[in-house]
Specification:
Number of domains: 3
CATH architecture of the largest domain: 2-Layer Sandwich
Largest sheet: 15 strands, mixed
Helix content: 40-55%
Strand order of the largest sheet: 4-3-2-5-6-8-1-9-16-15-14-10-11-12-17
CATH topology of the largest domain: Endonuclease, Chain A
Radius of gyration: 24 Å
Structural class: alpha/beta
Strand content: 15-25%
CATH class of the largest domain: Alpha Beta
Length: 487
Amino acid sequence: MSEPWLDILSSLWPWLVALINLLTSIGCTLHIVLRKREIRAAIGWTGLVWLAPMLGAILYVSFGINRIQRRAVELQLKDSWAAQTIPIHTAEEASFHERFTKIHPNLSGLMRLVGGLTPSFVLPGNRIAALQDGDRAYPEMLAAIDGARRSVALLSYIFDNDRAGDAFRQALLRAQGRGVAVRVLIDDVGSRYSRPSMVGQLRSAGLRAEAFLPSRAPRLFKYANLRNHRKILVTDGCVGFTGGTNIREGHWRSLQPKSPAQCLHFRIDGPVVSHLQRAFALDWAFASGEILEGDAWFPQIEHSGSVWARGIPDGPDEDFETLKDTMLGALSSARDTVRICTPYFLPDAILIRAVAIAAMRGVDVKICLPEKSNMPVVAWAAMAQHWQLLGRGVRIFLTPPPFDHTKLFVVDGAWSLIGSTNWDARSLRLNFEFNVECYDEALGEEMERLLDRKVRQGKEITLADVEGRRFPVQLRDGLARLLMPYL
């Protein structure tokens, strides 16, 4: 005969499981209702929690909650940033600013808008040079590391263990050998694009290297979110590089790599370099626990050029959707021209509508996308959305191979957004990005000419092309579009 308490337990355990599931589902639903900003995401998670007992709650707790909170780390770094809180204007720069805002009052409003999204000031006195492909970017970056005397801060999403990566590893070792303080931060997912991981290789060589947010899903690493997608190099706290170029030989086309790619990077001299250093210092403190401070990392920076610029960090924590709001503001501010170049174009409905409305207002809107993507599913999903733009006057061009990884956004030939952000959900909602907004006609016109060359070399997609796709192709693209939040 069985024990009475076992009989009671055997009859009660289904009710206990049901009660636990009910309480868990209610708890998750309350968190979703109070915390989720987007209605569709809230509805989707709520449905999963209730329709998939226990499993839905486990998935929500594992993947639906952002646990990356870095505000405390940012407060610790506040004293290190004190020297860059108030911009210093020369009389010449003040005169330029007055003239610029009179000619472009719409961009003056954009400047105020972004000022409300980020605590950083627009800083005058910057020189920004475009570096096409790794063939121009890497030699300048390596020369900056070799010229460093006090500090080197390097952050990259991908840092491959290949010929390009080895060149940077040797330069970093030389810098450390001279007594330079070297810190290297690589996204954990990005470090896995080659084996063995460069994080381990740098550590074995005696360099201070950290992986950002180690991933628990190595087999799905290419589709992991909450990644640090930034590309930042700062030497001696005053020479900076940022843009879209990772450290991998595919960008160094003169090496004749197996998978070449076009890209665009930028060298920055001037006070806005302090914004690059802030972003690195925050990410480094979060990953390593070390606070970078003092003149070696945050010196006073001399003015070097005519560009007014501001760094714009973006991420799934305190800087959530800062870049998206900046893009919306820029599109609504455009009077004459908009030029967009991105390797992945999957904006949400709000951004698509803003691009379309700009064209409907008479703005000349041209978008450059790669003819051959390194992620076909992304290209299919993008094609399924093109009709919403082509039917409203937007013109889309496909740039010829090699794969075009360029990220650039220009308005009226006077405002440029440079940096790491793609026009997709991963960049605009799920990953950590860094961009620099630039107010300068000479730079803006140069960037517009660069993109217009891509337009002339590219193949234009028309509405007839999109509507003329065979039904199986349309179905494939439509199904791929359903994966947008995960691409």
